[in-house]
Amino acid sequence: MATILRDWSYRYQWLYDGISRIAALSVGGESRFRRLALQDLSINQDTKILDLCCGSGQATQFLVKYSQSVTGLDASPLSLRRAQQNVPQAEYVEAFAEKMPFPDNYFEIVHTSVAMHEMEPQQRRQIFQQVYRVLKPGGIFTMVDFHRPTNLLFWPGFAVFLWLFETETSWQLIESDVPAVLSEIGFEVSRHALYAGGSLQVIQAKK
Ligand SMILES: C[S@@+](CC[C@H](N)C(=O)[O-])C[C@H]1O[C@@H](n2cnc3c(N)ncnc32)[C@H](O)[C@@H]1O
């Protein structure tokens, strides 16, 4: 699955960002989209935030408006170079999310935006366990990613999007019950909201 457009969207940041902006129109625009998972959280300038799988800093640029202690982690050196250029206010770490090089109980918030659909189910569970480990007790994990549309009208556009840009792991994500997996790991899921005809899910879960 996926087409050449997937490779191009990773190679050319303008294409990735343009597509994200168009997709974000379904929830009222990019600015609203990037803040959906942060609603009602208490964040100040010293709140230690991790942007997990930060890409080129697409969510990081919003996180640095809330806190001066933001770290972006990604496995791609190219994305990290771009993130460093785009959002120099954050610190960056090159690593795999399933093997995060941070101490236990370190962050107050771990945020991940449209990245968990790239993981195999077992890998995603391993990443959630790592998130649990690096969060402080009482810390919050926030995630925004695809979900199985609940409104039939959203299915055609959603399916075409996945076919053009995504791989099998996106279909696996929408088949899985993420809040249930998080609860099994020990999180207390405090929010699970659906947007864009159910095709987008926002989760907040407390350690
Ligand atoms: C679709 S992009 C999301 C970028 C950004 N968070 C956003 O909101 O647009 C997914 C990112 O996850 C990164 N990634 C994929 N697998 C990873 C892994 N196992 N560990 C760390 N980063 C990973 C990719 O390099 C890519 O930058």
> What is Rg?
16 Å
Q: What's the CATH superfamily, by name? A: Vaccinia Virus protein VP39
What is the global morphology? globular
Average pLDDT number: 93
Q: Strand order, main sheet: write it out.
A: 3-2-1-4-5-7-6
Secondary-structure arrangement, i.e. CATH architecture: 3-Layer(aba) Sandwich
**What is the helix content?**
25-40%
Question: What compounds are bound to the protein?
Answer: S-adenosylmethionine
Q: What fold name stands as the CATH topology? A: Rossmann fold
* Regions with little confidence, pLDDT below 50 for 5+ residues: none
Discrete helix count: 9
C-alpha termini separation: 36 Å
Q: How many extended strands?
A: 7
Reading the helices and strands in chain order gives HHHEHEHEEHEHHHEE
Which CATH class is shown?
Answer: Alpha Beta
Strand content: 15-25%
Structural class: alpha/beta
Overall description:
- It is a single chain.
- The protein has one domain (42-206): 3-Layer(aba) Sandwich (Rossmann fold).
- The longest helix has 14 residues, at 121-134.
- It is built from 9 helices and 7 strands.
- The protein starts with a helix and ends with a strand.
- The chain is globular.
- It has helices at 4-11, 13-24, 30-35, 60-63, 77-86, 121-134, 155-165, 168-175, 178-185; strands at residues 49-52, 70-74, 91-94, 107-113, 135-146, 188-195, 200-206.
- Helix 1 (4-11) crosses helix 2.
- With 207 residues, the protein is of the alpha/beta class.
- The mean pLDDT is 93.
- It binds S-adenosylmethionine.
- S-adenosylmethionine binds at residues 20, 53-55, 58-59, 74-76, 79, 96-98, 113-115, 118.
